[in-house]
TrEMBL record:
Native source organism of the sequence: Nonomuraea terrae
Membrane topology: Multi-pass membrane protein
Protein name: Multidrug efflux SMR transporter
Residue ranges crossing the lipid bilayer per the database entry: 33-50, 57-79, 85-103
Subcellular location: Cell membrane
Classification of source organism: Bacteria, Bacillati, Actinomycetota, Actinomycetes, Streptosporangiales
Pfam families: Multi_Drug_Res (PF00893)
GO molecular function, one term: transmembrane transporter activity
Top-level lineage group: Bacteria
Family, per entry: Belongs to the drug/metabolite transporter (DMT) superfamily. Small multidrug resistance (SMR) (TC 2.A.7.1) family.
Amino acid sequence: MAWIYLLIAAAFEVVFALATNATEGFTRLGPSLLTVAAAAGGIFFLSLALRTLDVGVGYTIWTGIGSIGTVVLGTLIFGEAMTPGKALAFVLIIGGLAGLKLSDRRTAAA
């Protein structure tokens, strides 16, 4: 269940980042409220995941998935450039996240 909580937390992290971009410096009420709610939701579900996962693994995977999701959606929604260097960096991030999951002592014991 911890990994499901972590994925939900990561989805909130993506919404948080994208909504923050839309706040225009917290001058727009709707996106500002969405940003605060998404941040709270992400932290809440992260805290549930960390009841089982090591904090180093859980937090790193949370931010990694959030980062990748934000860049992918930022490219699709906001037309941000996807360069070969960015693509390579994301492959490396995904590899690191997979390595963390595979090496998590609590996951290996379960």
